Amino acid sequence: MSPTSYQLLHPAMRFRCLRDQVMTLTYNGPQMYTTFCLVQPLDIFPEWERTLGLPILPTVPDNQPLSSFDPSVPPSDAPDGHRAGFVNIVGSPNVGKSTLMNRLVGERLSIINAKAQTTRHRIMGIVNEPEYQIVYSDTPGVLDPAYKLQEGMMKFVKTALQDADVLLVVTEVQEDSMAHPETLQKIAAMDVPTFVLVNKIDLAQDQSLVEAKLDAWAAQLPRASVVPISALHNFNVDTLLDRIVAQLPVSPPFFPKDELTDKPMRFFVSEIVREKILTHFKQEIPYSCEVVVEAYEDAPKIARIRAEIHVARESQKHIVVGAQGRMIKRVGMDARRDLEGFLGKKVFLDLYVRVDKNWRDDERKLKRFGYMD
Questions:
Q1: Per-residue pLDDT tens for 278-288?
Q2: What is the pLDDT of residues 164-193, one digit of tens each?
Q3: Which of 39, 64, 280, 342 is 20 to 30 A away from residue 325, measured at CA?
């Protein structure tokens, strides 16, 4: 792994999955009988069976070319039967895409917050096993862009649709259709294995509501397999992994087998600071802030980090700093605590707030921040 890549999170950041209940669903599809497991009981659902009658997408033939793979690398370089592909996660804001991504990868790569539009970049998480490599991508929630920052975010979604070998469309039990109808139309026209994942079923009032949502999404995307999940409680995620692997093309790995992500360490530092801004501030403040790591000194026992929080207006700077610096101190303390767990060492974190007027509509600045080419 390159020295700038994040290899393994501190154990305190890992998910600890202790299964203590089993729920069984039976789908009457060709050779499809699935047992699902829960981490925490979903008390509203008894053991039950459901017939969906949905088509099961055929496994990708071994000789099918992979459009995103470099043709200069001969297929014979792959271990016998090794599978690899890009499994991209798309959906409306705040449906649980990042929670699912972290579950599938087994590491906390994407920040999570109850506020919508938490994810701004395309974040890759790589799962490696001897027989396969899955490159997952978490993407921003689909929307109609209101400014150039959101245009850049939607470009990440567009690219994810173009290079997907398997597509995971995440919705949730209260959602009737995707927030951006044009994206849904593109997905319906795509010829790639697609799973519609109806998330947050633990929030449903009863089983009939979940069944109605499954039927509704099966009607909107008839080529897709529709699966109820709870990413928060790890319900159905393990079974989903097996089905994803079955759809991957035969291919050599795209990344070295010890890689976990394509992002550098500075990216995750900035995301942790931004997560604390999302936590501590309301209204427009979290959406007007960008965090840039200006200096990163990594010593054996301590990491010294200087980061700038860019805001769009002078009034926002006063809010972020707070009276007598209390708010910026709170953000820094919470971020430093997580960073020390993340890095496994002491952290000296120096935060500054800078007014960068209208940065969300400035293409030059957005290129610097990584939102545009």
A1: 999 988 899 99
A2: 999 999 999 999 999 999 999 999 999 999
A3: 342
Token pair 């920052």: residue: 149
Tokens 């499954």 appear where? 214
CA angle 287, 291, 297 (to 5 degrees): 165
DSSP result, 278-331: HHH--TTTGGG-EEEEEEEEE-SSEEEEEEEEEESSHHHHHHHH-GGGHHHHHH
Residue count (the chain): 373
Sequence letter at residue 338: D
C-alpha distances out from residue 254 to 66, 104, 136, 231, Å: 11, 18, 12, 26
Closest listed residue to residue 22, CA positions, set 50, 57, 48: 48
The number of CA neighbours under 13 Å toward the Cβ of 225 is 24
Evaluate if pTM is beyond 0.85: no
β partners of residue 137: 88, 124
Q: Domains plus CATH for the chain? A: 11-58+77-247 (3.40.50.300), 265-368 (3.30.300.20)
Q: Is 293 exposed, middle or buried, given 0-12, 13-18 or 19+ CB atoms closer than 10 A?
A: middle
pLDDT (tens digit, 9 = 90+) per residue, 108-126?
888 888 888 899 999 999 9
Query: Three-state SS string across 12-35, please?
Result: HHCCCCCCCEEEEEEEEECCEEEE
Q: Is 80 exceeded by the pLDDT of residue 20? A: no
pLDDT digits (tens, 9 = 90+) for 29-79: 322 223 333 333 444 444 333 323 333 333 333 333 323 334 344 444 556
